[in-house]
Amino acid sequence: MLAAFAGLSCTKRRQKKENTMKLKQSILWATFFLGALAASLTLAGAARAQEVSARFAGKFTLASPVHWGKATLPAGTYTVRIDSTTRPIMATIQNDRSTFAIRVMSLATSDYHNGSNALRLKVRNGSLVVHSLVLADLDTVLIFDPSPAQEKVQEAHADPTVPVLVARK
Q1: How far apart are alpha carbons 166 and 169 in whole angstroms?
Q2: Which residues pair with 110 in a beta bridge?
Q3: How far is it, in rounded angstroms, from Cα 124 to Cα 69?
Q4: Cα 3 to Cα 26: distance, rounded to the nearest angstrom
Q5: Which stretches of the chain are DSSP H helices?
Q6: End-to-end CA, the chain
Q7: Could you read off the pLDDT tens digit of each residue along the chain, which spans 169 residues?
Q8: Could you tell me if 140 and 112 are in contact, meaning their C-beta atoms sit under 8 angstroms apart?
Q9: Closest to 37 (Cα-Cα) out of 29, 25, 27, 47
Q10: Cα separation of 64 and 62, whole Å?
């Protein structure tokens, strides 16, 4: 009679061992699948990052502090980069020492077919403010401060313009 009970106990141990092996095998396959998925997503992201090249990249130098949106750029040399011309158009401005960068969004655009790349500034309350960025290479003007179009003309005077040099690869 004891032999019959011993056989039942042995069968239960064998089933438990098989279940444990199946569980370990399932975990191994899940780990492999997640690892392969993570690797493919990482490689796809890296490939996409290499594909993105700037639609426009240029350089300009400010002789005095300038307000651009809510930021104030101190005097110095800066790079401007525009990755896409789909609206809203975002520009990344970074100083030469790479100590800081800002992103600004164009509020409006306009066609432009003459002249060269330039940063147009306006004087407001005694301070220089970025009005627009002329991108002659892209036949467009990015307007960052539409208020001059809404202001009354008081007197004719020349507003400052900063040339923007195009970065060629």
Answers
A1: 10
A2: 141
A3: 13
A4: 35
A5: 2-51, 147-150
A6: 89
A7: 455 555 556 666 677 767 777 777 778 777 776 767 677 777 665 555 444 577 888 899 999 999 998 899 998 899 999 988 888 888 999 988 877 788 888 888 888 777 788 888 888 888 889 988 888 888 888 888 877 555 543 433 445 667 777 655 4
A8: yes
A9: 29
A10: 6
Per-residue buried b or exposed e for 16-42, using 16+ beta carbons within 10 Å of the residue's own CB: eeeeeeeeeeeeeeeeeeeeeeeeeee
Taken in order 91, 94, 95, 99, the sign of the CA dihedral is positive
Contact residues for 111 (Cβ-Cβ < 8 A; gap 6+)? 139, 140, 141
Q: Which two tokens stand for residue 5?
A: 């009970």
Residue 13 is inside which H or E element, if any?
helix 2-51
Tell me the domain boundaries of the chain.
1-52, 56-166
What tokens were used for 168? 């060629």
Give pTM, 2 decimals: 0.59
Identify residue 165 by its one-letter amino acid code: L
